[in-house]
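Support reply, case 0932

Customer input (verbatim):
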Amino acid sequence: MKWINYHHLIYFKVIAQQGSISKASEILKVGQPALSAQLKNLEEYLGVKLFDRKNRKLHLTEQGKVALEYASQINYLGQELLHTMATKGVAQNLQLRVGALDSIPKHLICDIVEFARKKTGCFLSIYEDSKESLIGKLLSHQIDLVITDHHVTSFGQNKLYCKKILNKKVMAHASKEFSNLKKNFPESLNGAPCIVPTSHSKLRGDLDRFFYENEVTPKLIAETQDTALQKILASKSEGVIFLPHFTTKELMADNKLIRLGQLKDVFSSYYLVHSEQRIENPAARLILDQNFEKMRLG
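Our regenerated output:
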């Protein structure tokens, strides 16, 4: 039986991702001459050329593309093995690792993970980062689930599973100082100071469409994906924010925010993204099977 060097595959995978040995060398903390030699050994062992060099950059050959798929899958299984042995294959407490975009309301994150903790007693690890970083962690089995406001079914050549868990109407909220904007809403938003999500978010696109279709031109004073920061700014009378009702219930109960009106045909949708695993995390499965539309959120 022929044996393949696991390290060679990891080195090859990183070189392919970076497009150069020098960049891969920095990430792997391996010298360029040693890395070049390891790549050459792998090509000789497989009997194929994995890269072509064009414009001082490495490009995968057709055989290289096939090898990369296998290398990625082998790395995937290796990481899953480590995670399984560390958290499920031995007698340790169940751990649930959840990633969330900063655009996800903190109330929703808390409701989701607290539901799993109360049902299973699992230890919680919660991460906030960009979609690309979180999906990368998901695929390398560093986290179990990602909460996002985007529908995601693939990442590169990797298949993902995506379940919509909530679809909520978006409301305009502000402090009592803006109560006059309730009258003739949404026309009243003309010239009103508003705090909106950043331009790459789906909700920002929906808001821009809503303003255009209703011939409304608000005064945009700030943009941030962080919904907690949006609510702080609004409660300090900085401007109007646009969020589902369940995210602002506490502030409204404390009279720090009021509802100005509902934005017709504008919704915030939230999804759970997960990848295929050989051994399933029971806390993650519990969350995936839950009907959050019927839960009392916030």
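We compared this against your earlier run and they match. Two observations from our side: The mean pLDDT is 88. Residues 95-166+271-294 form a domain with the D-Maltodextrin-Binding Protein; domain 2 fold (CATH 3.40.190.10). Please reopen the case if you see a mismatch on your end.
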